[in-house]
Amino acid sequence: MSAPHPDPAVRVAAREAGLRRLRRLNRGLVLLAVALCAGFSAVAAAALPGGSRAPRRTVVATRPTTVLRGPMAPDVSAGAAPPAATSAPPPAAAPVDQGVPPPVTAQS
């Protein structure tokens, strides 16, 4: 190694030149690492059959269903006459619980 140059401007210029070389070297190494990573990924993807070990979830869009009460209307095809409607008794109403306990009766 040579002795340091007595002129500070020359020393600063030499330092800046060395830093520029290191920046270029670092940039090149980062680009090389990214390229190698992409290359190894492509080779591995082509060589090994891929797939997830977890089961795939399939989202199926469904329409909301309607609860029908009473007889369902038959499907009327084109040109067919609808059958005569039959009257069914309405469903019995369920008792409404109002939160009141039943009356207490004396047991004999």
Task: Give an overview of the whole structure.
With 108 residues, the chain is mainly α. It has a domain at 1-48. Helices cover 37% and strands 0% of the residues. The chain has one helix and no strands.
Question: Which regions are unreliable across 5 or more consecutive residues at pLDDT < 50?
Answer: none
**What is the terminal-to-terminal distance?**
119 Å
Structural class: mainly alpha
Mean pLDDT: 78
Shape: elongated
Percentage of residues in DSSP E strands: under 5%
The helix-strand sequence is H
What is the C-alpha radius of gyration, as a whole number of Å? Answer: 43 Å
- In percent, how helical is the residue content? 25-40%
> How many beta-strand segments?
0
Topology:
Layout: H1 8-47
Question: What is this entry, summarized?
Answer:
By secondary structure, the protein is an all-alpha fold. 37% of the residues lie in helices and 0% in strands. It has a domain at 1-48.
